[in-house]
Amino acid sequence: MGAVSAAGGYLVGGVFCILCGGAMALGANVPGIGTTPNLPRVMLTIGLGVGALIILILAQWTTNTANVYSGALGVGSFLPFQHKSIVLVMGIVGTVLAISDIYEYFVPFLNILGTVVPPIAGVILADYYVVNRLILKRDYSFGPGTKYAQFNWAAFVSIAGGAVLATLIRFFTPAFTSIVYAFILYILLVVVCRGIGIPYSVGTYVEHETGL
Fold first, then answer.
1. Secondary structure in 3-state letters for 13-36
2. Structural domain contains residue 108
3. How far is Cα 79 from Cα 97, in angstroms, rounded to an integer?
4. Do both 125 and 93 map to the same domain?
5. Shortest CA distance to 30 belongs to which of 40, 12, 42, 14?
6. Chain-centroid distance, C-alpha 91
């Protein structure tokens, strides 16, 4: 229930804020900063004043404080440095990147992630529901001491192929399209490899008991 409430609150509040910001930018019709509307100039133009700018700055401050803190926790989990040192370095790096207009590349970066990462889900779904259950007639089993020493080249080819095809031939959103392409490609590669007797994974599967 808490997850549903939080998701609903973010959805409604986020959409409302985006719509209000878009309406303000269109109404003020001020020049943007690169591809981003100049929000401080918009707020001054529609007469909100310095108080609104202070609220905007404080809102950005609190949001990015949480971002730096959570990021420092993640980095600190594998780097042997003090938490306050990581926070300081990340804050400085983030400020420098913001000044250098890194946000102009943020949306293209998200577009790339939205095309490259989702095919992994397509391969996982195909491997679990189709390849293992329908083709190999077996279920996944993870016993004590299970180890995988295999390189599934068909999975990597399917992921790359799904991302490329979703970029070239799109019938829906890039993420959904890449998942479908990777799903189909992986099944086809496995069927073809099994038909001509070529292994679609390299290495061995090892499972040993741990004494439990």
1. HHHHHHHHHHHHHHHHCCCEECCE
2. no
3. 22
4. no
5. 42
6. 22
66 & 11 share domain: yes
Average pLDDT over residues 112-139: 90
Q: Report the predicted TM-score, pTM, of the whole model to 2 decimal places.
A: 0.62
What are the tens digits of pLDDT across the range 42-74?
877 888 778 877 887 888 888 888 888 888 888
Cα R_g (the chain), whole angstroms? 24
pLDDT higher than threshold 70 for residue 34: no
Query: Of 83, 103, 123, which one is at a domain's C-terminal end?
Result: 103
Domains in the chain: how many in total? Answer: 2
User: Which residues constitute the domain of residue 200?
Assistant: 113-207
CB 183 within 8 A of CB 128: no
Q: In the structure encoding, which two tokens stand for residue 165, read together?
A: 């095809």
Give residue 188's pLDDT: 96
* Range 172-177 average pLDDT: 89
